[in-house]
Design a protein that fits this description.
Elements (H helix, E strand, L loop, with lengths): L3 H13 L7 H10 L4 H7 L4 H9 L8 H15 L11 H5 L1 H9 L19 E3 L25 E4 L4 E3 L4 E4 L5 H10 L18 E4 L1 H6 L22 H8 L3 E2 L7 E9 L2 E9 L18 H14 L7 H12 L3 E5 L6 E5 L21 H4 L14 E3 L7 H5 L2 E7 L2 H6 L4 E2 L4 E4 L9 E6 L23 E5 H9 L8 E4 L3 E2 L3 H17 L8 H14 L1 H20 L25 H26 L5 E3 L2 E6 L30 E8 H9 L4 H6 L10
Parallel strand pairs: 2-5, 5-8
Antiparallel strand pairs: 1-4, 2-3, 3-4, 6-7, 7-8, 9-10, 11-19, 12-20, 12-21, 13-18, 14-17, 15-16, 15-17, 19-20
Helix pairs in contact: 3-4, 5-7, 11-19, 12-19, 16-20, 17-19, 18-19
Length: 699
């Protein structure tokens, strides 16, 4: 039987819990019953109207002390405007004070900061965040806090022991060594994130170390060496590496680099793993996280926290995170009861890529792959890559050359759009000869498309450089299907096809699409804008909130990097052709899936180019990956996009908007400048866009 001391401790714990708010719909009902607008309530609580909207649609929850004031107000309203079946519980004390609640809220201290620290401390180690030296930015909506991880998915550790988390919380970290830091993170920090799939695993906590924090725990401030910095690691005899091993912790095969994982074997269901990222070792690449490494720790925590909530807790570069997200959303196994023993076992999760690596068909592999080297394969390879095409200057008309501007249009996350409802192979490839083409079966087909003649003012849809095929070549299913769509009969010579198929990337697409669209919306670029307002919003969105602009850049890098990682090439000067490299040992080394995404994206681009030519008579000057450059009578794409007489955009061509697959203005230059580049064999799209055309296969 419980003792009096234990019972009092339990009661005190209940008293210390935060107030529980009624369901979002009930909050809105009570406010409307009181005749109070969202704007007036926001003014009384010293917050924004959007925050009140988020509370009433369940997208976010208020934090103390605003939470306590909001609860008191709702209790007061509930006493006046009760409804049958209402989920709101009103305590006698709250009801007695209901008459004073609204007036007290409206006369609250106006000096109270808008970004109040997170909820009351769950541990003595927490304290309010120090004011950031950068502008306060709008908080992203987030799901309800998991009680196992009260302080969010990550923290940024500074040299004074302050660990900055999401929502402005700051933890006191007493660690002075890497081992102490790992143990504090797992035992006291309250950091981590719940799994993204019922069969998946919780995300391990991430600790990001500033330069001063790295030095404090015994790490060098920078990694120096003649190799690329991202490939540098601490030597095996470094004191920190020895300390980790002495404490019975382990490092992954990546060893101790900019993104170090330190772990022990799991005990039951409890994982013992911490991810470290060292800022001064270039953990946050400037191309993927523009300006983030130079931010204050609290702002870095905000950027990474929003990314973790909307995408995944970073576990390496954005390319690594993109690949990890695929596995997190499609776990390879699930628990299943063994009918013979009655025990639970780990079984294959349908729709996933399983736990074992799978060798590709020879034409899907890279030239150095063992299946190619060991078999002596000489039959050619898939060449499904993004467009890098420049139109022949001789095909330009006088009318085109006289147009004053060259305007670049970029498709929003074109490769993500291509991943939507994309059916890919889940089983090993089977070899067929003289097989009839079936557009529903994913695979690689040896077909002669050289006899197809298309308008020379458009790139060929069958090759990355836009040139006409010269004979039989290997193509992914979408490329061959597009030839059929254009009205040509195709007769495959042979094929490597997969019998088991599925839309493996669908959840990956959905999560990243939502992350991209929501982040753009937070920057003021919403779906309800007309084309002119959309262009204006896109022009200023990076200045609205630099932190969220960095999140947006990271989301885009995650998409391209994740697709590129599906065919990661060998890295390191000591690699020898024919050897297996580490990436081949993971089930997600799937060059056929990468080829399917790129093939579909390139076909989608050509379809838009073809439709634009039919509707407007305009032909592109150049295409680079997902960017296309058109001659234009003005600096605005509104003057050449295919609008109907009603003012609505005609379907089939390019459309402006924030959704993946729709277009945005990428750049404007003088037409003479673009023609000059074309005459030199250069791609105007590369200079307009300033980006690259390859999908990152790096670390």
């Amino acid at each position: 039987m419980a003792s009096e001391e234990e019972l009092f401790a339990s009661v005190d714990a209940l008293l210390d819990e935060e107030p529980q708010l009624p369901p979002p719909a009930e909050r809105a009902r009570l406010r409307e019953a009181a005749g109070i607008t969202q704007a007036r309530l926001a003014s009384a609580l010293k917050t924004t109207t959007q925050s009140v909207k988020n509370w009433e649609n369940g997208r976010s929850e208020p934090k103390s002390p605003r939470l306590d004031a909001y609860q008191r107000l709702l209790n007061g309203w509930a006493a006046k405007y009760s409804a049958r079946g209402s989920a709101l519980a009103v305590t006698p004390a709250a009801a007695a004070s209901s008459e004073l609640a609204a007036s007290e809220v409206e006369t609250a201290d106006t000096s109270q900061a808008l970004t109040v620290p997170a909820t009351r401390p769950a541990r003595p180690a927490t304290r309010p965040a120090a004011a950031s030296r950068r502008p306060v930015v709008k908080k992203a909506a987030k799901p309800a806090v998991d009680p196992r991880f009260p302080h969010g998915p990550l923290a940024v550790l500074d040299g004074d022991g302050s660990a900055y988390g999401v929502d402005g919380i700051v933890l006191d970290c007493p660690a002075t060594t890497v081992v102490e830091l790992v143990e504090w993170t797992l035992r006291e920090s309250g950091l981590g994130a719940p799994k993204l799939n019922r069969y998946g695993k919780d995300s391990d906590p991430l600790i990001v170390l500033t330069a001063t924090a790295a030095v404090k725990v015994g790490l060098p401030e920078c990694l120096e060496g003649h190799e690329q910095r991202r490939s540098l690691r601490l030597p095996e005899d470094h004191p920190v590496v020895k300390q980790v091993a002495k404490a019975k912790w382990q490092l992954t095969q990546r060893r101790f680099g900019p993104w170090a994982r330190i772990y022990r074997k799991a005990q039951g269901r409890d994982r013992q793993c911490v991810q470290l990222a060292i800022l001064s070792w270039d953990a946050l690449d400037e191309r993927s996280w523009p300006g983030v490494s130079e931010m204050e720790p609290a702002d870095i925590a905000r950027v990474l926290g929003v990314y973790a909530q909307r995408v995944i807790t970073p576990r390496g570069s954005t390319a690594v995170s993109g690949l990890e997200l695929m596995t997190a959303l499609r776990p390879p196994t699930k628990p299943e009861r063994d009918e013979e023993t009655g025990n639970w076992i780990s079984a294959y999760n349908p729709g996933s890529l399983g736990t074992e690596p799978m060798d590709p068909a020879p034409p899907e592999a890279t030239p150095e792959h063992p299946v190619v080297v060991n078999s002596g394969w000489t039959g050619g390879f898939l060449n499904e890559e993004a467009y890098q095409w420049v139109r022949d200057v001789d095909t330009l008309s006088d009318e085109e050359c006289l147009l004053p501007f060259a305007v670049g249009l970029d498709l929003n996350t074109a490769f993500l759009a291509a991943a939507a409802r994309l059916v890919v192979g889940l089983s090993a490839p089977d070899h067929f000869h003289n097989v009839k083409f079936n557009p529903k079966i994913p695979g690689s087909w040896l077909v002669d498309l050289s006899g197809i003649e298309l308008d020379p003012r458009l790139p060929s849809p069958f090759t990355p450089d836009g040139s006409r095929p010269t004979g039989p070549a290997w193509y992914q299913t979408h490329t061959v299907a597009y030839a059929q769509e254009l009205g040509y009969d195709v007769h495959p010579i042979e094929a490597y096809l997969r019998r088991e198929t599925g839309a493996y990337l669908d959840p990956w697409h959905d999560r990243l699409k939502n992350a991209y669209v929501d982040t753009l919306a937070d920057l003021g670029v919403t779906k309800d804008l007309d084309d002119r307002a959309f262009l204006a919003a896109m022009e200023r969105h990076k200045q609205v909130d630099p932190a969220l602009a960095a999140v947006l850049a990271a989301i885009k890098a995650t998409i391209k990097g994740g697709v590129g990682k599906l065919r990661e090439r060998p890295q390191g000067k000591h690699y020898k052709e024919g050897e297996r490299w580490p990436a081949l040992e993971r089930p997600t080394w799937r060059p056929d899936i990468r080829a399917a995404v790129i093939s579909k994206a390139r076909v989608n681009m050509h379809r838009k180019l073809n439709n634009m030519a039919k509707m407007t008579g305009l032909y592109p000057l150049a295409v680079l990956s997902d960017c296309v450059v058109y001659p234009s009578p003005s600096a605005s794409p509104l003057d050449f996009l295919p609008y109907a007489a009603s003012g609505k955009i005609q379907p089939g061509g390019f459309r402006l908007g924030p959704t993946p697959g729709l277009a945005k203005l990428e750049g404007v230059q003088e037409m003479a400048w673009a023609v000059d580049l074309m005459e030199k064999g250069l791609n105007p799209a590369r200079h307009v866009k300033g980006g690259d055309a390859v999908l990152d296969e790096g670390e």
